[in-house]
């Protein structure tokens, strides 16, 4: 919060107050009296902007004419601020103050600049990666037209790299990028591009801390640089889940105001070898099969997901295996809660990293649970995975930064029942309230498919002979026809994992985003107060 006092300001200047800043100030106020000295600003108040009664156009013209005629020099101070719009969108707005005294204008500008410089959470230098081929191939245009002008206005210096091939950004971050020069890394693209940044940054941080990412028991070091996502992909789920909308301008403004949203990351290992990191969905069975099938149909465009979804639903494959997991203990919240993870989430704050993480001493035999069975789907949701198509998401009450993931097991059931379960993702009914579905909040889990004697042998065969053939060979339930595969694939945030036997561990708050989580709707819907940030 800041207050500027200039009794001689010709527009009747004095104190500029933000609504709610002090008791009894319900709206923007431009007054001549200072705020009562015994009131201190509320903690965490963030204020760079101002709003005054709008003078009508005629009045403004009259003022201008008056000054011109008397040959006074008319100076302007324009103050930009963020205004909330509907559906979690933010827009940049501005108020212009005019005054004939250049020195006075300068002192206002100086005072505002001083206040802004004092906010250390705002980034000053950003490293930006643009995927020119993401989504509708509009990444470059989106950045140039919508984002770069805002960064320039906010005096943020940028180093822009347009990627030339897949994994360009990841590899650059791992080895070449001079990270000390930057306050954050921004990706312009979709979830795949975000995943590249996450992999590059986490890897680099562990290398700099001399940690071994191949060890599943290693306690990883959190990344200090925040990540910004300018959505320009085809789905942009992570942006939607952390900001509430897929809008490049809104994301740019969250970066400019220096928001910070911690996020859990799952590490996935196979036989003490690191495979990947996951921040949203890990899915075996149905979601793995849909992804595998849709990858073969890229030529169909986005409709391939609907096609493969329908096909896999009709195919109705189930998979046998053993899931062992370590339940989250001593945490508040369950996967069946009605409350959602929102901006300033109390569950995330309560369940944050503990000084002695029990999960780090994972012994399945001692404290883990084991479930054997036939599953249509095994999913681990580290966030709700809400998207425009499934507004509730796969696990509506999952949290972004509570150090857990929701393990959802869908056992073998009829097609009709499975359809009921799937449809409940799109309506108000509880998708977990079915006797063939169970959900557990866990900090670590392992999956071992039945028939899996040596998963690395399987991996080699998969690569050499192609999936269909090996599935035919290992199909023991249908030895005669060889039609039903014994193995599915893991869908890891939209990428296919080549191994089926995996060990997954949640790392609490391993990364931070330039976001603040989805804000409660009432903040947005109260548009009578165009609350500025
Ligand atoms: N210059 C490039 N040429 C080809 N591929 C690239 C390039 N830069 C990045 N990629 C790869 O393209 C993949 C897809 O990109 P991105 O995630 O940006 O878009 P998308 O797939 O359309 O969106 P979404 O992942 O949200 O569905 C990423 O996995 C990334 O590794």
Features:
533 residues, Tumour Suppressor Smad4, disordered N terminus, disordered C terminus, binds adenosine-5'-triphosphate, ceramide kinase activity
Q: Would you kindly provide a written description of the structure presented here, covering whatever features stand out?
A:
With 533 residues, this protein is α+β, with helices and mostly antiparallel strands. It folds into three domains: 15-119, no CATH class; 121-260 and 514-533, 3-Layer(aba) Sandwich (Rossmann fold); 267-349 and 367-507, Tumour Suppressor Smad4 (Sandwich). The protein has helices at residues 57-69, 102-117, 139-153, 168-176, 191-208, 237-243, 248-256, 286-295, 303-315, 346-350, 364-367, 415-423, 455-465, 467-474, 521-525, and strands at residues 15-17, 29-31, 75-84, 90-99, 125-130, 157-162, 184-189, 226-231, 261-270, 273-278, 281-285, 319-327, 369-381, 405-411, 437-449, 490-492, 495-497, 502-513. The strands form three sheets. Strands 5, 6, 7, 8, 9, 10, 11, 12, 13, 14, 15, 16, 17 and 18 form a 14-stranded mixed beta sheet that branches. The longest helix has 18 residues, at 191-208. Residues 131-135, 163-168, 189-193, 196, 233-236, 494 line the site of adenosine-5'-triphosphate. InterPro entries: ATP-NAD_kinase_N, CERK_C, CERK_PH, Diacylglycerol_kinase_cat_dom, Lipid_Phosphate_FormReg, NAD/diacylglycerol_kinase_sf. One of its GO terms (biological process) is ceramide metabolic process. It comes from Nothobranchius furzeri.
């Amino acid at each position: 919060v800041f207050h500027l006092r200039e009794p001689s300001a010709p527009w009747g200047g004095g104190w500029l107050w933000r609504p709610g800043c002090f008791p009894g100030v319900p709206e923007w106020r431009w007054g001549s009296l200072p705020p009562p000295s015994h009131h201190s600003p509320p903690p965490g108040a963030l204020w760079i902007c101002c709003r005054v009664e709008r003078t009508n156009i005629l009045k403004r013209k009259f003022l201008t004419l008056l000054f011109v005629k008397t040959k006074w020099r008319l100076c302007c101070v324009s103050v930009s601020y963020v205004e909330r719009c509907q559906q979690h969108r933010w827009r940049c707005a501005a108020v212009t103050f005019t005054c004939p005294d250049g020195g006075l204008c300068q002192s206002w500008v100086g005072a505002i600049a001083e206040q802004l410089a004092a906010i250390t959470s705002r980034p000053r230098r950003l490293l930006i990666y643009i995927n020119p081929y993401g989504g509708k191939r509009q990444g470059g245009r989106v950045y140039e037209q919508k984002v770069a002008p805002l960064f320039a206005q906010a005096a943020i210096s940028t180093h822009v790299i347009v990627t030339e091939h897949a994994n360009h950004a990841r590899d650059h971050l791992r080895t070449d990028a001079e990270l000390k020069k930057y306050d954050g890394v921004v990706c312009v693209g979709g979830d795949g591009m975000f995943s590249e940044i996450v992999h590059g940054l986490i890897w680099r941080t562990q290398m700099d801390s001399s940690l071994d990412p191949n060890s599943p028991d290693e306690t990883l070091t959190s990344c200090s640089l925040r990540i910004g996502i300018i959505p320009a992909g085809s789905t942009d789920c992570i942006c939607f889940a952390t900001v509430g909308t897929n809008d490049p301008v809104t994301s740019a403004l969250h970066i400019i105001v220096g928001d910070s949203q911690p996020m859990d990351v799952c590490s996935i290992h196979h036989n003490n070898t690191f495979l990947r990191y996951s921040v949203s969905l890990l899915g075996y069975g149905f979601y793995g099969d849909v992804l595998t099938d849709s990858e073969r149909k890229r030529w169909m465009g986005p409709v391939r997901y609907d096609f493969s979804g329908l096909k896999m639903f009709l195919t109705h494959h189930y998979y046998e295996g053993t899931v062992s997991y370590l339940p989250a203990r001593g945490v508040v919240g369950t996967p069946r809660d009605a409350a959602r993870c929102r901006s300033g989430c109390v569950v995330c704050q309560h369940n944050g990293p503990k000084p002695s993480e029990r999960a780090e001493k994972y012994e399945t035999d001692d404290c883990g649970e084991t479930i054997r069975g036939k599953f249509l789907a095994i999913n681990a949701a580290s966030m709700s995975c809400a998207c425009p198509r499934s507004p509730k998401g796969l696990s509506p009450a999952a949290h972004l930064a509570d150090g857990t993931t929701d393990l959802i097991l869908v056992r073998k059931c009829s097609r009709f029942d499975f359809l009921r379960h799937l449809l409940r993702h799109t309506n108000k009914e509880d998708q977990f309230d079915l006797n063939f579905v169970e959900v557990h909040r866990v900090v670590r889990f392992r999956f071992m498919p039945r028939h899996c004697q040596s998963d690395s042998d399987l991996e080699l065969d998969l690569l050499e002979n192609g999936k269909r053939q090996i599935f035919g060979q290992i199909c023991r339930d249908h030895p005669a026809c060889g039609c039903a595969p014994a193995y599915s694939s893991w869908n890891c945030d939209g990428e296919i994992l080549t191994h089926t036997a995996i060990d997954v561990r949640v790392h609490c708050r391993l990364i931070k985003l330039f976001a603040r989580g989805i804000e409660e709707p009432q903040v947005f819907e109260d548009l009578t107060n165009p609350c500025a940030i």
